[in-house]
Amino acid sequence: DGSAILFAGQSGSALPQPDKSSELFASDVWIGKINPQGKLLLEKKLGGSGPDRALAVASTTFGSAVFAGSSWSDDRDLRPNPPPFSNAWIGILSRSGDLLRQTIWGGSGHEWATSIVATRDGGFLVSGFTTSPELDSSRSRVNGDAWLIQLDLTGNIIWKQIFKKP
Predict the structure, then answer these.
(1) Prediction pTM value
(2) Tens-digit pLDDT profile for residues 55-94
(3) What angle do CA 159, 165, 166 make, to 5 degrees?
(4) CB of 69 within 8 A of CB of 78?
(5) What phi and psi values does residue 13 have, to the nearest 5 degrees?
(6) How far apart are CA 108 and CA 83, in angstroms?
(7) How far is Cα 144 from Cα 29, in angstroms, rounded to an integer?
């Protein structure tokens, strides 16, 4: 509605980390809203026991927010999708910052969601990269290939495309 500015990123995790050697990498998704004068209106942390990051945020057609990032977690705020590598994590939030719906996508390698935009039909376009060879059965990836996913209003995948590096 123009009265608030969204922000997203990562913050130190307040959750216990199972491997003390990885404490430096512990993080949660951090999302919030400020007014045009810089006053904090809303702040929320989401995630699990592994590193979780928000790399992009957008407004929804119903006045809340959606974020895109990555997660190594399979507990707490995330529905199980076992690591050992990161999965793309897209979350749709209520106006009060509660996680309404989520989409977790990935394979045997790393997937990161790096940008998200709202579409005119109320859905979202999300982009990122993958290192998982089985997602399109084409080849092994060392540094990753780009991908684009279209989601509907509720976070369901409508289509996805992987763009291979030459």
Answers:
(1) 0.82
(2) 999 988 777 889 999 988 877 777 666 556 788 999 999 8
(3) 130
(4) no
(5) -80, 135
(6) 8
(7) 23
